[in-house]
Amino acid sequence: MFLHIDHVDKQFTNNKTVHQILTDIDLTIHEGEFVSILGPSGCGKSTLLSMVAGLSDVSSGKITLEGKEIKKPGKDRGMVFQQAALFPWLNVEENVMFPLRKEMGKKKAKETAQRFLQMVQLSHYADHYPHELSGGMQQRVAIARALAMNPKVLLMDEPFGALDEQTRARMHKELETIWVETKKTILFVTHSISESIKLSDRIIVMGTQPGRVIADIKVNIPRPRQMDQKEAAELQRRINALLKTEIDKVVNEELAHAANH
Amino acid sequence: MQRTIKQIIFIVALIVIWESVVRIGGWTADIMPKPSDVWQALVRGFEDGTLIYDLGASFQRLLIGLAIALLLGMGLGILLAKSKTADETLGSLILSLQSVPSIVWLPLAIMWFGLNEKAVIFIVVLGGTLVMTINMRAGIKNVSPLYIKAAQTMGSKGIDLFIKVILPAAVPYAVTGARLAWAFAWRGLMAAEILSTGPGLGYTLKYASDFGDMSLVIAVMILIGVIGTVVDLIFFQRVEKNVMRRWGLEAS
Ligand SMILES: Nc1ncnc2c1ncn2[C@@H]1O[C@H](COP(=O)(O)OP(=O)(O)OP(=O)(O)O)[C@@H](O)[C@H]1O
Ligand SMILES: [Mg+2]
């Protein structure tokens, strides 16, 4: 058991009312697996990921990585957010060196940063500042930065959500190559069905209100995958049907709420 | 370029109108000097070195005062941002002091320090510190949570997080604070020099007024305005703009 999300619940309390966000999430993720978490907006995907990152606490249950319970953020889990979250006062190379500066000398950190910038094909931009890069380039730097500290798990929260279609397709290819090269365990949050089919070994489909796992689907389509392949189209139809019930639920609730006000 | 041309034409027109109105009205220079009188006063002041001497004296006080104000302001701003108790007590006091022009402290300052440099510097420090404190506090409070989260996932916490992430993220606010501190300090300095003692631009202005030398009065006024604008435009606004762009707070 590599990463174990063990019967985790999450509640938020707002003005004394308790909101159940996630109920009984129970997942085992194996080393080297590329797992997508797919679900409608607001079902708690980001919340789940930030608990794995250690940025927020579980309400009950526990999360363990290689048997050790996760309580705080740590370098064994790298995180890539929807916005690149690069530090604007550091150049590209310094950004990638940020997590390394304590554990290795400057020279070694520089070499490591260079290596990972090469992996995302941005070594020529080492001394550029984040505001000089496009959104896709910034996100690649963020991926390099997370990988450079050699985490056991890479957590990605809709990392390509803000990018245009073509850039996103390029990023998919690049991420797949990186994953094949590094064999990292990746937990990838998305609400795009095709993105999850294209990239992952396994898709966790989540329902909403409260957030829970409604399906855990193995994807056995050989890579590189095309969305017009028969199996891919078939899988997409199946997940669509699963999610439709969930999205209808959100819409109905919205309508009921509107009617009451 | 267009804009600069318009501005030059405007200033020239203003001077021409001023010169002709005074000539037609027939006022003497001790009531309303002509631009040419003012220009002569300015040239005389620079030639005999008095204005240069004054500029040096004023700037020395300003720099000492501003440096103290910026350091104090940063320290206080950090304190207010980090301590809720300090913010609720000292913070609200500082906010209300902000509405009091620093120059009203001069009588007290003269009592405490005597009629000398120190009283003037005190006014400069007071003028700059408050606004720097308020901006520094806002800068630290408004650091994007995303930066903090990202840094935490990279193993940064505590003092390291504060120095390597929160402080640099607050730089845009600090720069704005410094620009405003300069503006307040400059105004406070001139007022304090007029009301207390010299040497300095403000003191020379009052001295000229006592002797009815209105040409020199206006010459000094123009000098005060030009320096205020030039430092703001050439230095602070440029730095501020660069920082805003780099920090991604402004579409470039
Ligand atoms: N700090 C918080 N306090 C209270 N409620 C919160 C907090 N953070 C998230 N929530 C709520 O938890 C639910 C899940 O939020 P979350 O951001 O995890 O959803 P998501 O699945 O990532 O959605 P999206 O796809 O839109 O990013 C939402 O209803 C949200 O309002
Ligand atoms: Mg989210």
From TrEMBL, chain A:
It catalyses: a quaternary ammonium(out) + ATP + H2O = a quaternary ammonium(in) + ADP + phosphate + H(+). The lineage of its organism: Bacteria, Bacillati, Bacillota, Bacilli, Bacillales. Keywords: ATP-binding, Nucleotide-binding, Translocase, Transport. Residues 3-233 form the ABC transporter domain. GO terms for molecular function: ABC-type quaternary ammonium compound transporting activity; ATP binding; ATP hydrolysis activity. Gene3D superfamilies: P-loop containing nucleotide triphosphate hydrolases. It is an enzyme of class 7 (translocase). It comes from the Bacteria. Its EC number is 7.6.2.9. This is Carnitine transport ATP-binding protein OpuCA. The complex is composed of two ATP-binding proteins (OpuCA), two transmembrane proteins (OpuCB and OpuCD) and a solute-binding protein (OpuCC).
UniProtKB/TrEMBL annotation, chain B:
InterPro entries: MetI-like, MetI-like_sf. Residues 55-235 form the ABC transmembrane type-1 domain. The keyword Chloroplast does not apply. The lineage of its organism: Bacteria, Bacillati, Bacillota, Bacilli, Bacillales. This is ABC-type sulfate transporter, permease protein. The keyword Iron-sulfur does not apply. One of its GO terms (cellular component) is plasma membrane. Keywords: Cell membrane, Membrane, Transmembrane, Transmembrane helix, Transport. Belongs to the binding-protein-dependent transport system permease family. It is found in: Cell membrane. The chain crosses the membrane at residues 7-29, 62-81, 93-113, 119-140, 161-185, 214-236. Its main location: membrane. It is a multi-pass membrane protein. One of its GO terms (biological process) is transmembrane transport. SUPFAM superfamilies: MetI-like (SSF161098). PANTHER family: ABC TRANSPORTER PERMEASE PROTEIN MJ0413-RELATED, ALKANE SULFONATE ABC TRANSPORTER-RELATED, MEMBRANE SUBUNIT.
